[in-house]
Predict the structure.
Amino acid sequence: MGRMAEFWGFTRTQGRVFCLLFLSARPVTQAELAEALDVSAANVSMSLNGLMRWGAVHKVYEKGSRKVLYEAEPELRKIIRSVLGGREQQELKDAVDAFAEATDIVKAERATRPLTTEEEFVRDRLQHLEGVVRTSGRILSLLLGDGRVDVKSELGER
């Protein structure tokens, strides 16, 4: 699970903490996590904070106790939706904005003089990249259940 977490951009310890919590039939304390995983309490604390930000782990409080316990979100689709919806959609939006800005710069330059063959090539490639990233964003929205995408149209098929 640690390697899989790294693949998705999380730390190995976050993956191990999540896996231990996910496989645990009861909520677990931070100290129990540190001992079971043989990692520092600080590392577990940072991992838990990151996992809680993504909705992968929740705090649980026992009645009559001051102990803070943790449990994993059992519905993996919620976690995937949270991660992809938050992180990847923002990355795609930022990329679209950057490509659109670069395309606008080239268009502004074209208004003042004819573009060279190389500049035309770069403009075409920028427009292509912008289109691919926009399509990727719409497909991601579809996967997350946030929208509708005509895949054939997006791929240029009729």
User: Anything to note?
Assistant: The two ends are 42 Å apart (CA to CA). The first strand starts at residue 28 and ends at 29. Strands lie at 28-29, 57-61, 68-72. The chain has two domains: 2-72, 76-154.
